[in-house]
Amino acid sequence: MTSTIFLTVAVVATAIFLIQFVVSIFFGDIDTDVDMDTDIGSVISFKGLTHFCIGMGWYMYISQGTDISSYAVGILVGLVFVFVLWFLYKKAWQLQKENKPEKPEALLGRECTIYAHDGDRYVVQIAVNGALREMDVRSLENRKYQTGDRTTIVKVESGIMYIQ
User: TM spans, by residue (predicted)?
Assistant: First the structure.
């Protein structure tokens, strides 16, 4: 009898998971979770409950156990499924990290490499938001630089960056 109950829970939870998965892949993100003001909102949610039921339901059906230790292990397996869900959400959130543009003033003191020059105007390669970018700069003391020289941004005035 309990085996049938756990099989039903496991099959229904797995079907819900598969429907959510297919809908999210083909139709985009449909948010059915209840928003909570805590950090554990993605764990205590409909998706979290679905994953818990998948883990516990399938474990209890496969093990066919009816003693208290089987229930304890089943609960632990369900919690592991929820933890894996939380961990994957956390990693996916890190992938969505937005790059916020750095203001020119934030580049003060940053090292750069001369890429090209034309008179007193230079093009440098500099790391901005973790990516190598090319930017126009000017020499502060009219010093002459060659391609490949390394220098530092020392001044920003009226949107123009100066190197030294």
Answer: 6-28, 40-62, 68-89
Same domain, 151 and 129: yes
Whether residue 126 contacts residue 108, with contact meaning beta carbons closer than 8 Å, is answered with: no
- Whether residue 122 contacts residue 136, with contact meaning beta carbons closer than 8 Å, is answered with yes
Burial category of 142 from C-beta neighbours within 10 Å (exposed 0-12, middle 13-18, buried 19 and up): exposed
Task: Tell me which residue range forms the domain holding 136.
Answer: 104-163
Q: How high is the pLDDT of residue 30?
A: 52
* Cβ neighbours of residue 47 closer than 8 Å, sequence gap 6 or more: 20, 33, 85
At 41 the pLDDT is 57
Q: Identify whether the C-beta of residue 162 lies closer than 8 Å to the C-beta of residue 140.
A: yes
* Boundary residue ending a domain (69, 95, 121): 95
CA angle 19, 23, 24 (to 5 degrees): 115
Q: Does pLDDT of 95 surpass 80?
A: no
What CATH number does residue 158 fall under?
2.40.50.140
Neighbours of 66 (CB within 10 A): 11
Whether residue 158 is predicted with pLDDT greater than 90 in this model: the reply is no
Q: Which residue has the higher pLDDT, 1 or 134?
A: 134
